[in-house]
Amino acid sequence: MSTLAKAYEAFEKPGLVVSCKVSNLVVYKGALVGVNASGYVAPMAHGTANLKFAGVANETVDNAAGSAGDKSVNVTKCGSFVFKAASGFTPAQADLGKEVYANTDWEVQISSGGLTNAYKVGTIVALENTSTGSAGVRVRVDNHVV
Is the pLDDT of residue 1 over 70? Predict the structure, then answer.
């Protein structure tokens, strides 16, 4: 195989927000979402097998009455977001810099204990309350998405 001998157009497409086909279910705005074994986006949940973390949903998309792939959702693949601390996880200042696992589509924890499938979704960068007033953590998702 030869190397380039002239300029090549690689069709750059910034990957900050991408459109992903949704499985036949509801994805809510702000949810941690993953790509399932069939290639469709679904909410992150430790009880669901074979997910690959894709990012955070920018909008609510209801495809429950449709077939997988009938609708798409815009997913953010970088930046930081505030998620609820899962039951049993009390965020502390010493947790900054630790990676977190998805418990549900909006709850995270620093331990993989009690999780059927351990999906890493980001790194804690700050302690903050969620928009619902619950204790939470600001999670940077960069370098954890597919």
Answer: no
53-87 residue pLDDT tens: 999 999 999 999 999 999 999 999 999 999 999 99
* 6 occurs within a structural domain: no
The count of structural domains within the chain is: 2
The residue out of 50, 76, 102 marking a domain boundary is: 76
CA pair distance 81, 64, nearest whole angstrom: 26
Q: Examine the domain organization and report whether 21 and 59 are in the same domain.
A: yes
Q: Indicate whether 145 belongs to any domain.
A: no
CA distance 77 to 6: 32
Instruction: Provide the percentage of residues in the chain whose pLDDT is more than 70.
Output: 98
Of 44, 76, 108, the residue at which a domain comes to its end is 76
Please name the helix (run of DSSP H) or strand (run of DSSP E) that holds residue 119, with its range, or none.
none
Model confidence over 110-120: pLDDT tens digits? 999 999 999 99
| C-alpha distances in Å from residue 104, one per residue of 29, 42, 54, 112, 117 | 14, 11, 14, 13, 11
